[in-house]
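Z., the sequence and structure:
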Amino acid sequence: MNKKNVITYLIVIVASIMYILLGHTIATENYHSFAGDDQSVVVKATVLEITDHYIETYPISEYEYAEDETYIFQAEIKSGELDGTIIEAAQSLDYITSVHLRPIEVGDKVLLYTIPGGMAEHEWLLSDYQRFDQMLMLGAVFVILVLLIGRWQGVNTLISLILTCLAIFYVFIPAVLAGESIYLWSIGTCIYVTFMTLFIVNGVNRKSFAAILGCLAGIMVAALLTLYMDHSLILTGLIDENSILLYGLRPDEPFNLRAIIFAAIIIGSMGAIMDVSISIAAALAELKEKLPQITFKELFTSGMNISRDIMGTMANTLILAYIGSALAGVLLMVAYNSSMLDLFNREMIIVECLQALVGSIGILMALPFTALICAVLYQ
């Protein structure tokens, strides 16, 4: 990497960090926490000894009985101000539901919670098993593989991934919770992530600009189509229990649930659209380098031929991803709905189909746009 490229790279990094910091400041200007005053305290702990175990039976009808199983155990707290303290805690298993946590065992790493001023029989109760440590290990494997396979490009990939996560969780989500315009912030986030990712991973060059323009064209098509279909389908945004809870989070100024669907669609499709855009741009850049005499028409034709090969799998990518993410809800609705007419008019199903179709159309439109832009810029 020459001196000019190093300076450009550093400028992109600094500009990205400034966007994150400035965006967070603006986003949180009117933000306030929705947490209540009476909050439970959650700590990590390790089970040392199970001291008691008993079962209570109680009637739930004239002929049916239910059982509650309770384990009393000692545990050592491993986090917070009480780190190192030995405490007594309880795990309750309610057998009314068939799915529950397995009984604790000595050596288990668990999460315990206590509610200040609570009326529970035991001060500390089992919340869940610790799972984040295992995810950190899997994340470490991912980082190592990216660096081994990608080397310097792998470093750029990780930097862009970190900045993308910060743009979503440190800027966009606080802006939404603060009551800012979801439409504007979602579009702004897509523009930032597209520029930042392609400039960091591929550098500031014609290939990156072609991919950025093609990607943004696909995102804008997806955004306009989402707005039109939102009006045409008469959506409410109440698609599941999470939407209902979110709507009730601010009774005085409720969240715009339709805008959240808009943001979910364009942010969810952005990655796939960016992927196909850089694939076309990189392939045509390589073709132009190997055949400097290639004409505008030949370059565009080659781009369209490559696009047709990419088209099938990338369209499947979004559709399968959205179906997989909503599989449990879809199974439940199919199981309890005998009318296909009613099922395929349910808003949850309609929104899932809308996400898949609009994202796929965005991909399809990004392909010819990127091929055309490359044919112009590479001449």
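The chain is about 60% helix and 15% strand. The CA atoms of residues 119 and 125 lie 12 Å apart.

Let me know what you think.
H.
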